[in-house]
Each structure stands twice: as structure tokens, then as C-alpha cells.
């Protein structure tokens, strides 16, 4: 029998008012006198699934436990099955404190999540880890929205998981996804910057406006913002589909 | 710990000279005097992965073991994680003869495969099953290309896996995929029937020809077939990308 542990890891993308595409990372902070091996253990929100749990509900549960983020867009995008993915020395000390069988193989299912960042401000979340045969440990998760070009070295293969999620987003970016990442009312520069961040390239402003308006998926609203450059108010747009919401 | 078994199941699609989209199914036949519980056990080619094996190579290995099909297009399309997916009564008798721990949970990763059916004629494949703690059992696999609208009740959740693979193919069908399923030289009616089978709808002949020729991805060859209707020879086409192969 294969008898492998299964985990889920969530790559939560957010797009903030500074117009930056960010990923939500977590760091475990031990509560008081306990070990501090988790200090540099920055990772994606993720954990083992339970023996009797289906993957999608498990991803929702784990994300909620670790970040308080609930009921959001979550989609499987890849599976990471390198037999050595949890065996790096840098991770073993951490795993030894958290798992009853730290050497056992773990296959992880990557989930991509999109949120409007303003709805999910980072704060500390108390966690309550039950380790089979070893009782319970508690502590806090620090959460941090991190620019995609400033992501540090992460635990396990999480850097590779983020890169794969970005590739997925690049390939799949569509109006539904954009509308989740952006506020309901957005400006053309916001929409353009989102596309530039995801596609990782500069886009010609004039061509972008022409193309996006030609597609007819966004519509002008009557609202304007006074923060437009050169004192000229910027126009807000909405996705056509959002008009009737 | 979750300690779950991981398997892969392969949905191998082929498109034959009768212009039908088919799926490769297998039935285990016991060699001689042994049990015959496998008689009605028709399933997708699939098996548990090994403890130290990555998913993609595992899928290639398992498909080769069960069908002799080697080195083909194989792509993960979904994961099936219902905790009860191997617990149906209809499957338990079969599992009891094949697995050391038949009640254990199995999560399966679905792989989609595309082949030109003429290269893979069905024949019986000898199998050699090693069951942990129980020695080895041998027998034959019967393989059968089955029309997608004539698929019988399959083992476990394999009908659902086939349906999901078809949905995936429907969404992802592109020229690369079509070129794998079709012979190098094909007729427009062949290409149209492939699209009709995958999309599960009739397509207007005139519109289809107009659209596909406008896209410029296929080119006319000098070859013709004498089997065209009304005695008029049909023209063969090739995908533009195949021209330089």
C-alpha cells in the first residue's frame, strides 16, 4: 500500500490599493516558553487533511483555521508529489516539533485563492494543533501579505508552489478572476496594473484601453475619483456581469 | 497523520477509423483455477502508486503495465477524494482479492491520455500483482476500446472519472490535442466528427469548414482518398504544425 500523507497548501492572491499583487504567507509564533524553531518557518497556509475528509472542504477548513479567511474562491491547480519534498534539513527541525511522523512522505494539493485584499486584513490567529499521540500545542500565526517579487525562501517546496500558481493564474486570468481581485468599482490603471503583475510584463496603456473597451466586458460608471493624476478625475468601471448584482 | 493510499487512473481516449471517440477499459481475467470475482470488474487502467514514486512517472508505469501503452500524452486533470469512493459493496469483493488492506481510503489522481487508436490495438497483457504480505498473483488484462456512449457500469467511481475527463477534453480541446487523436493526414469530416463527439453536439458542416479554414491551422495536402461519398475523392489535410515534422 502506498500509505502517504496528503496535505493542501493554499496560494491566496490579493490585489491591494497600492496596486500590488500579493500572496498571503504565514509564520508560526510559539506562545511562550516553547521552542522557537518556527521563527524562520515562513510558509503558505496549509496542513494535512483528515483521514475521512474530502479535499475541497479540507482546503476551506485549513485556510479558515490558519487565516480566518472563509468561504472564498478556492481551486485546485496542481499536485506536488516529489518524494523528497518534506525532507530538506531546513524543514526537518520544524516538522519534528509539529508532526508525530515527520519523515513520512507528504503529497500536497495546491489550491489557488483570490481575494479582494481590503476584505482580509492580516491579524494574528490562534492555532490549536492536535498531534496524534502527542497531545496539543498552541500558538499564533502571523500573517503577511507579501509582494510576489519579494517572497522570501519558504518552507518545503512552497516557492515552487507559488511559481506554479502564478503560471496557472497567468494562463487562466479572465474577467471572473479579475473581478474577484479588484474592488467592484475600479479604474483602468488598476485593471492594467493587475494584468501587468500577473503577466509579469509592461503593457502599452493605449492598446490595453482600446482592447479592453472593445471586448465590451467592462462598463463605465457615473462615479469618479479625485485621486486621478494631473487633477483630472479618473473614471470608475465595473464588470458588465456585476452590473446587476 | 492522514495515511491515505494514492492511486492514479488513466482515461485513455482514442479516435478510430470508424470515426468514433472511444475510451480504453480493462477487465482482469484470472489465469486458471483462481477466483472469478473479477469477471464483471470493468475499470479504467489504474493502480496504487509506490511509496517513493512521483505521480507522473507512476502514471506512465501503471499504464504501461496494464496496457503496454508507453510514452504517450498524459496529463493530470482532477483528483477524486470522496472518502467512500472504494467502499461500494460491488467493489469490495474484488478489492478483497487484490489488496492487503481493502478498506483503506484511496484518493485517486485522474490522468487524461490521447492516442491515435490505430497505433494501439487491444490485446491481452499479462499482469503480475504483488500484494504486500500476501505474495503474488498473476493473470491477464483484457483491454477494450469502448464508445463513449456505450460505457458500462464501471468499478468504483470510474464512470464519474470518465465524465470529468470528457468535460476537461471539451474545455481544453485544441489543435494539439486534435492532432494527437487524428492520423497525420485527415479529412474534414473526420475532424468535424471528432469535435462533435467531444462537444456532444451536431455541428453545421458548412460553418465548421468555413471556421476551421479561416483559422489557418490546417492546410490542404496533395493526397486524396477514394472513399469519399458520391465517388468524389475527399481531400486530406494536415495541421500546420505537422507540416515540418
Radius of gyration of chain A: 20 Å
Count of domains of chain A: 2
- Mean pLDDT over the residues of chain A: 83
User: What share of residues of chain A is helical?
Assistant: 25-40%
Largest beta-sheet characterization of chain A: 8 strands, mixed
Largest interface: A-B, 30 and 30 residues
Q: What's the overall geometry of chain A?
A: elongated
Number of helices of chain A: 6
Distance between the termini of chain A: 50 Å
**What is the name of the CATH class of the largest domain in chain A?**
Alpha Beta
CATH topology of the largest domain in chain A: Nucleoside Triphosphate Pyrophosphohydrolase
Multimeric state of these chains? homodimer
CATH superfamily of the largest domain in chain A: Nucleoside Triphosphate Pyrophosphohydrolase
The helix-strand sequence of chain A is EEEEHEHEEEHHHHEE
Q: Which structural class do you get from the secondary structure elements of chain A?
A: alpha+beta
Q: Tell me which CATH architecture of the largest domain in chain A applies here.
A: Alpha-Beta Complex
